[in-house]
Amino acid sequence: MSFRTSHPAESSSSYSPQPCRQFTFSEIQLATQNFDESLVIGRGGFGKVYRGTITYGETDLDAAIKRLESGSTQGAVEFWAEIEMLSNLRHCHLVSLIGYCSDGQEMVLVYEHMPNMELLQIVCTSVELL
Ligand SMILES: Nc1ncnc2c1ncn2[C@@H]1O[C@H](COP(=O)(O)OP(=O)(O)OP(=O)(O)O)[C@@H](O)[C@H]1O
């Protein structure tokens, strides 16, 4: 599988900076305590989702951090599509994308942590078990 290492929009002359920020892999490791298993809050098609604290400028933000897993059904195309879409869309009913990290094979999405999303997952799982 081949991976893109830069945001497609960065090569475009019409690119205008988005509030969505690019993080280094070291910043992601720091935020997730090097992907500590105790911080895993969910798992989706992309891979595991970790809860972490990411530093954005002067502010520490409560974040949900999705790391693309090797063997994930979703890949580079979906990764960049998610960044493109959520960078341009801001709505109270949509989860906010804080930023992303693309470093070699590592692809990570950083969202605002939504406590209700975990609660919803617990309710859905309980209903499935009934
Ligand atoms: N922003 C968030 N805040 C809190 N928890 C989150 C957030 N994003 C994801 N999660 C948790 O991680 C789980 C997996 O989320 P994810 O979006 O990766 O999977 P999904 O909803 O099944 O989507 P897909 O399979 O299309 O990637 C969610 O069910 C939720 O528990």
Structure description:
There is one protein chain. The chain has one domain: Phosphorylase Kinase, domain 1 (2-Layer Sandwich), CATH 3.30.200.20. It starts with 20 loop residues before the first strand and ends with a helix. It has a six-stranded mixed β-sheet. It has helices at residues 25-31, 76-88, 115-129, and strands at 21-22, 40-43, 48-56, 59-67, 97-103, 106-112. It is globular and about 40 Å long. The model is unreliable at 1-18 (pLDDT under 50). With 130 residues, it is of the alpha+beta class. 27% of the residues lie in helices and 29% in strands. The protein contains three helices and six strands, in the order βαβββαββα. Keywords: ATP-binding, Kinase, Nucleotide-binding, Serine/threonine-protein kinase, Transferase. This is Protein kinase domain-containing protein. ATP binds at residue 66.
Secondary-structure map:
Elements lengths: L20 E2 L2 H7 L8 E4 L4 E9 L2 E9 L8 H13 L8 E7 L2 E7 L2 H15 L1
Parallel strand pairs: 1-5
Antiparallel strand pairs: 2-3, 3-4, 4-6, 5-6
The structure holds adenosine-5'-triphosphate.
The site of adenosine-5'-triphosphate has 16 residues, from strand 2, strand 4 and helix 3.
